[in-house]
Amino acid sequence: MGFDQYHEPAHELPEETRTFARLCASLTEEAEAIGWYQQRLAVEPDREARAIMRDAQGEEFKHFCMDLEFLLRRTPLWREIAEGILFGEGDIVEQGEEAEEAAVDGAAARGAPVTGSTSLGIGNLSARSTT
Amino acid sequence: MSHLLREHAPISETAWRLVDDEARSRLTPALAARKLVDFAGPHGWEYSATNLGRAQRLADAPCDGVWGAQRRLLALTELRVPFSVGLDELHDVERGARDIDLGSLDQAARRLATAENSIVFHGWESVSIVGIVQAAKHDPIILGEDCERYPRHVAKAVELLLGAGIDGPYGLALGPETYTRVLETSERGGYPLLDHLHNIVAGPLVWAPGIQGAVVVSMRGGDFLFDSGEDISIGYDHADAQSVKLYLSESFSFRVVTPEAAVALGEAT
User: Which of A126, B33, B175, B186 is close enough to B211 for a disulfide, judged by CB 3.0 to 4.6 Å?
Assistant: First the structure.
């Protein structure tokens, strides 16, 4: 079994960051599976087989959404940006840019916690940082 | 699930945001040490010790012809300060109130910041942390009560550091009483003493609850190391019919690498 979801030594990562990374990896796998079923459905001529694949793809949609919701709940900044983009109408890129700008500026002003952490995100207060 | 058990607290997301924001706003002005020393991490709650990079050779051995050494570590210190928030106040948050009573949190934040500053500057023997003032190699300079002489004392401290080959910029941590005296003082011509001191050290002047007197430190980097395990967080303890019991907590170690890089300015006598 591989541990490719970690880009830093796992033993140096906080528990919540490891959980965050596992769910990010899971989200990626669900998105890949959705794409694979989409391709299989595009070429499969057997009606019964297609029905099974469509059912299986529905499962992957559910898994993807559950992973995403978990990550958004743990990452207020991500959630705020997502709220500005998802389930809307109009220009997606434009909405994305506006949502990012508003959320990042607001988070910076609040000193929001770092991604995947439950701390207050205060950290280093000097002008210089060592890590 | 995090050990902080925040998910179990009867507190809505809106109220959590309010509590976290209040804690952050109260802590940030008072966490003086973090404005002056090197900060590494946070490494997480499971991080238990700082590697000192040294080993202690052992007197005995498991068998002939073998010698052993034990690595030296500095165990992290955990700080925890309880506080409570009234359930009625939390319910009012859901009604749109934004002026809820967080007095207990404010006191806890002040206590935690004071404790952190005190440990960094004055040490804590029980956890083997030697503070900057204890470690400083230079003789302390007595500030006295005559504020107009403070620039001379601070300049002398900077001169001591330069003489020891310790480069700047330098920072000046001032205990609350000293800070107030400095703030209230204008020199001849109305020039604020705070600005004059700032020009001498070429770095920040910080209000530092938990510090007695004042301390000049070099901020060139690598001299004073704050190693954060879990950065300051709010956890849930329990709830009763009237209030929710929470706590502020953090874990860290601190060590002085260069005792020549600081000069203590003793309290007024």
Answer: B175
